[in-house]
Amino acid sequence: MKMIARVTGMKRSKGITEKGQSYDSTKLFIEIQFPESQDMCGYASQEFAYGTYENYEKLLASGVKMPFKAEIDFDFVTNGKAVKQIVTNVVPVFEKPKNS
């Protein structure tokens, strides 16, 4: 699934736990609209997994500034009990500057 959305934050994490297990991840915080109702309005930022630490570095190297608009690809993964949605690709959408 593809969508254009606003990335409001990123978090990277890489290292080794006290038990010797390695970890390497990037999390994106993506703005998602609430369903329209009398009791809700606006947006919330939802956390999504986006691969490894390297993806964080690639986005920074592209020149993005927070928050930024992007074309985002999602996929579903499961552990056999639960299904979750992950980000598989992010392409920043750079707005052309308006001429004054």
Detailed description of the structure:
The chain has a single domain, classed as OB fold (Dihydrolipoamide Acetyltransferase, E2P). Strands 3-2-1-4-5 form a five-stranded antiparallel sheet. 9% of the residues lie in helices and 55% in strands. A hairpin with a 5-residue loop joins strand 1 and strand 2. The chain has 100 residues and is mostly beta strands. The chain has one helix and five strands, in the order E-E-E-H-E-E. The mean pLDDT is 94. The relative contact order is 0.26. The longest helix is centred in the middle third of the chain and has 9 residues, at 53-61.
* CA gyration radius, whole angstroms: 16 Å
Number of strand segments: 5
Oligomer: single chain
Structural class: mainly beta
Which CATH top level class fits?
A: Mainly Beta
CATH architecture assignment name = Beta Barrel
Secondary structure: helix percent = under 10%
The geometry reads as globular
The SSE string, one letter per element, is EEEHEE
How many angstroms separate the termini? 37 Å
Number of domains: 1
Q: Quick check: average pLDDT?
A: 94
Percentage of β-strand residues: over 45%
- Please outline the major beta sheet: 5 strands, antiparallel
CATH topology: OB fold (Dihydrolipoamide Acetyltransferase, E2P)
